[in-house]
Prior knowledge:
Layout: H1 2-13, E1 21-24, E2 27-30, E3 33-34, H2 35-39, H3 45-54, H4 60-72, H5 80-91, H6 96-105, H7 113-127, H8 137-153, H9 172-183, H10 188-204, H11 212-222, H12 227-251, H13 255-270
Antiparallel strand pairs: 1-2, 2-3
Helix pairs in contact: 4-9, 4-11, 4-12, 5-6, 5-12, 5-13, 6-12, 7-10, 7-11, 7-12, 8-10, 9-11, 10-11, 11-12
Amino acid sequence: MTESLESGSAQTRDWLTTSIGNSSPDSITVRGRDLPSEVMGLMSFTDLAFLLAAGRTPSEAEATLFNAVLVSLADHGLTPTALAARLTYTGAPESMQGAIAAGLLGGGSVFLGPVEGTARFLHDILASLPSDKRSDDAALESAAAQAVQGTLDAGMRIPGLGHPVHRETDPRTPRFYELADEVGLTGPNLRLLKYVASAQREATGRALPINGAGAAGAVLADLGFPPPLARCFALLARTAGLIGHLAEEMDNPIGLRLYKEVDDRASRNAEPDLP
């Protein structure tokens, strides 16, 4: 009986392993590489993030686009995600991790989430095409038109299009296409996204720009990452921006003044009208 239990326990432990990293009393490895001698001082954080997720180091061209995605999503001003982080720090300055977590939890369908939403939308369109048609412009254009019309008929928005600030052109988007062309990695997702924008304009008569988050999602999809990881990388990038906001909040706080301003306005609006 004891032998059977020991055998079962050993079999159970066989699956309890990871290829991401490991450590022993005198070593640390990341994806099979010795951290001090093969990673530290030799590999950028961007390349390490790619290695951890993809299991391989990126080519120079891939690293250029991947890095562009991360820096493009790091910050966009006093967005709700940044405000959430700063206000959480105001209430709990001892909890930096809580402040960053609060900011990241606000990454949804409006802010940061379109990275994943666009990647998923494009993925589904491409999946509907035979593999030999995914590089054919006529097939991409036709598939985009069908997907856009179906989405609009269902009363839903087209992900990756429109921006609350950049009404005409999101300045990040043309740079993504320029970089992709420069390094020779303009893949089917980036190409398809242009056809999606054109189809939306034709169907509605209203031109919406491709936003930076949508273009970033297309780039990540062309780099081979599945849609859920697209949002993960958006959150990774925004973490750097939130750290910046918290550093500024420490030196030049606005959280308490913002709270008092909101509270004062809410109190004044709640006062009954005098006769």
